[in-house]
User: Which sequence fits this backbone?
């Protein structure tokens, strides 16, 4: 499925439904990153619960890290929904990758 290592920590904080959504989202994004970059070493995602009460919403924090030879991209996000926090973190990660690629292409000109 993946052409590089994808490690996700903190899935035990999620419900079964959230785990399915998160895994689907990660799979789609991992494929996109693979098209943007060559030789990806790994993608690490860490899910943390920052605030949780017995009743009511849960505040999630997501940290992402994607490594290629010689460079590591990082992003993070917080939200009251795990899927939303993950989506924001992955979009920020993609933005960092695109900026890196455009700067690298400008240097080649």
Assistant:
């Amino acid at each position: 499925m993946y052409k590089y290592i994808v490690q996700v920590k903190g899935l035990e904080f999620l419900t079964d439904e959230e785990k399915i959504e998160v895994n689907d989202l990660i799979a789609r994004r991992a494929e996109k990153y693979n098209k943007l970059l060559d030789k990806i070493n790994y993608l690490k995602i860490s899910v943390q619960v920052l605030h949780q009460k017995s009743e009511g919403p849960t505040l999630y924090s997501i940290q992402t890290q994607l490594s290629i030879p010689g460079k590591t991209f990082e992003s993070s996000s917080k939200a009251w929904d795990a899927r939303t926090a993950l989506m924001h973190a992955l979009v920020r990660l993609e933005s960092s990758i695109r900026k890196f690629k455009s700067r690298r292409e400008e240097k080649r000109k």
Q: What stands out?
A: The radius of gyration is 15 Å. The chain has a mean pLDDT of 88. The chain has one domain: 5-108. Helices lie at 16-36, 82-108.
